[in-house]
Amino acid sequence: MTQSRRWRQYFSFMVAALPSARGLLPLVALLAVWQLLQTGNSPYFPPPSDWWNGLVLLAKSGRLYPALSATTLTLLLGLAVAVTMGAGVGLLMGVSPRLNRAVGPLLEFLRAIPPPAIVPVAILFMGYDERMKLTVVVLAAIWPIVLNTSSAAERIHPLLLDVAHSFRLSAVDRMRLIVLPSVVPAILLGIRVALPVTIVVTLLVEILTSIEGIGALMISAQRNFQSSQVYGLLVLIGLFGLLVNDVFAIFEAILLRRWPPKIQSENF
Amino acid sequence: MDRRRFIAGINWPGTAVLVLAGLTWEVAVRSGLLEYEYLPAPSAIGRGLAELAKDGILVPDIAHTLISVAIGWAVAIAVGTSLGFLLGLSPTARRYSLASIEILRPMPGVAFAPVGLLLFGFSLETEMVVTILPVLWPVLVNTMGGVAGVHPRLHDVGRTFRLSRKDTILRIILPAAMPAIVVGARISLGLALVLAIVAEMVGNPEGLGYGIVREQQALRPDLMFAYIVTVGFIGIALNAAMLALAESLFPSSRQLRGGK
Hints:
Strand content of chain B: under 5%
CATH class of chain B: Mainly Alpha
CATH architecture of chain A: Orthogonal Bundle
Oligomer: heterodimer
CATH architecture of chain B: Orthogonal Bundle
Largest interface: A-B, 57 and 56 residues
Number of strands of chain A: 0
CATH class of chain A: Mainly Alpha
Order of helices and strands of chain A: HHHHHHHHHHHH
CATH superfamily of chain A: MetI-like
Radius of gyration of chain A: 23 Å
Strand content of chain A: under 5%
Shape of chain A: globular
């Protein structure tokens, strides 16, 4: 397959993934009504046209881009660490039923604690810094990945493990060639579940501690009654969430193209 | 009950690890092995819980959080199921709003906290602003999917019996879509608790969420952990109650457990 054809495939996939544009109508109508009903400058409901100005003002003051990149970096690093650790623990638990049974209740107990509740704990223990922010993201993202990985590793078809046995694969090769490929869709599913939680937790840390990031920017705009900036940042965060979800959906689709559809549908 | 089977059904290694972890924690803190200034031992957390209960703040805090969860959840279910029914029944309505939903759905709930604070200050209204919107989506999307996914043959049955529009909805579509709606409601309930806690941390200085932040700032980690443990148990209890309710409503469908 030529490179250009492959790109065209990705492109058509992306176009198909975008919901049809006419569905935007209610949102556009709402914003239009908001804009038109606006009389004078309300401190609470600034017209949408002002939101943009608020954002431009923030960008010009040089605070917007560092905040945006700080939040993005935390999210990416946190996910990377959570995937590495979560998949590792999940694989071990999935491969060894004894370990699974022993650690299961402890994990269930830890998982019952809502992720935002770990934010104050992390603040108390680690103080106000980037390391703390990262830890919180990892702790929020890791559970869905661990659970999905371990249950997928448990459900690997016995026949596949027999194949490994017949070929006299070493433990390392069995992991690399059989187990890992079978759990990749589950890991991806775990990340998809974790994504919205990690975004919420990152913003919460930033709001509570004013560590650099979009959340900190938003709460400081609120404290200064810069309402147009608050709404502008709200839209920005919405777009950010949408972008993160869409980029991940595309990444996932590209990665899973090499997996047989049966495994995919089993997990979705 | 068969007592022997009950005893055999207990996950002994799991329980042992849980107890052992607690004991190690206790010993490590007491012996000064763990050099964390702010790490309370499990026994201290237990005493903290008792202290909170004795001071009479734990119960009102629990009540406040549970009430805001109930309000947020009820509103989300009312709005979510009605909009979900509308969108599920009408493909046109779906076509002209799905993209808007897909844009609003990934909006993180906390981001509404500054907006709520701007409009309502520190209040229950702010808490509702943060809670309701994110909690709405699972109900709405599940209802929509459940209603739109009703098998066409069931619609044919309705037509054969010459059911009115109202009867078709009440007697055919609603029962068929009910399992999906209940799954949505269950996901929403867990989410409502998390978001109420978040809102109390940021926007409404009351309830369990504020308790956690307050004790963190007061450097009382034992009380902070006591609040966190309480929240964890409430989460488990709510989920178990919802599962029991769902299973008593639809004993046959095991798929209700799905959707982590």
